[in-house]
Amino acid sequence: MVKVAVVGSYGAGLTMRLPRSPAAGETVSGGVFASGPGGKGSNQAIGAARLDARVSLLTAVGDDDFGRAARALWREEGVAADHVLTAEAPTMVGFILVEPSGENRISIAPGALDELDAAAVESFRAEIAAADILVVSMEIPEVAVAAALRAGRDAGTTTLLNPAPARPLPDDLWPLIDVITPNQTEAPVLLGLQEGHGLNDEELTRRLCALTGGAAVLTRGGEGALVAQAGVTTRIPPHPARSVVDTTGAGDSFTAALAVTFAEGRPLTEAAHIAGVAGAHTVTIAGVIPALPTRDQLNALIGTER
To answer: Which pathway does UniProt place it in (predicted)?
Structure first.
């Protein structure tokens, strides 16, 4: 059983499904509301645990109902949360608008996550050192992202950065990343490129790979993914989804499956293919947590391809 350490976010997701997203100043009625757990770090941790990894999570929550619900969820899903910080500020909340096509728009109030700092990461160093792979996402302060990646490099643990939401990275962080996993929108932001930069997906992926010195996996939604490593770029074909109900958790499902299968020793291209199958499964189910596949579900989906 592989060990995965996750440093990232937790938040409560407040979701409204609407006939269409409102324009500025407009009210659109006919919505259906639901709330539930979210945050990229927590989603990725639960996704990895469902794929039979031993998972430790570092994030921050408030001393409130959302925070207590989070701790209950992690216990239920088998995610070790001993090092999760209880902050002064309230638990992060995300407001999510979902259109009938499954496309979504998200706004976030970070709250407790703003208190996740280098000292919190220091308390998590032993978990990072014991892990086969460290997964870091960027809904947390940059100081925590940097501290986590440095701790991973110091320990010799494979580091995977899911750079969402994207922002340009300091030059000194790039060499600390073994695998970076942006989508098509995030890649140009990471590279500091302006709109109309003129680079295609393969060129973007190669540039990202060169900066890390490791590998880059560019996710492309319905077009699959690109993997660049050691001077070679490989196209990963898409796994068609039966239907698209909700795209909200697809990236987190992809990241979790990529991390677990890569840590198990599979080639990165094979891991990216399996991760694409996991992401395609996730978009067919409403809500993030119900949509994250178990190992049995993922194996069954992979089996149907043969």
So the answer is: Carbohydrate metabolism; D-ribose degradation; D-ribose 5-phosphate from beta-D-ribopyranose: step 2/2
> Running DSSP on this structure, what letter comes out for residue 62?
E
Contact between 276 and 238 (Cβ < 8 Å): yes
The residues that are catalytic are: 252
Is 139 a known ligand-binding residue?
Answer: yes
Q: Around 137, how many Cα atoms within 13 Å sit in the side-chain half-sphere? A: 26
**pLDDT at position 245:** 81
Is 42 annotated in some ligand binding site? yes
Residue 29 and residue 60 in contact, taking contact as beta carbons nearer than 8 Å? no
Asked whether 150 and 176 are in contact (CB, 8 A), the reply is: yes
Tell me whether residue 65 is annotated as binding: no
Amino acid code (one letter) for 197: H
Q: Is the pLDDT of residue 303 over 60?
A: yes
Task: Find out whether 248 is annotated in a ligand binding site.
Answer: yes
The pLDDT value recorded for residue 301 is 85
Tokens matching residue 57: 């999570």
Looking at residue 288, its pLDDT comes to 86
How many CA atoms lie less than 13 Å away from 79 in the CB half-sphere? Answer: 28
Pick from 55, 57, 112: which is nearest to 82 by CA? 57
How confident is the model over 189-205, as a mean pLDDT?
Answer: 90
pLDDT tens by residue, 226-267:
999 998 999 999 888 888 887 778 999 999 999 999 999 999
Give me the pLDDT at residue 305, please.
57
Q: What is the mean pLDDT of residues 129-154?
A: 97
| Nearest to 253, CA basis, from 274, 224, 225, 282 | 282
The answer to whether 252 touches 164, Cβ cutoff 8 Å, is no
Residue 218, phi then psi, degrees to nearest 5: -100, 115
Residue carrying structure tokens 């809500």: 287
SS3 content of the chain, % helix, strand, coil (to 5): 40, 25, 40
Relative to beta strand 215-219, strand 179-180 is parallel
Q: At 71, is the secondary structure helix, strand, or coil?
A: helix
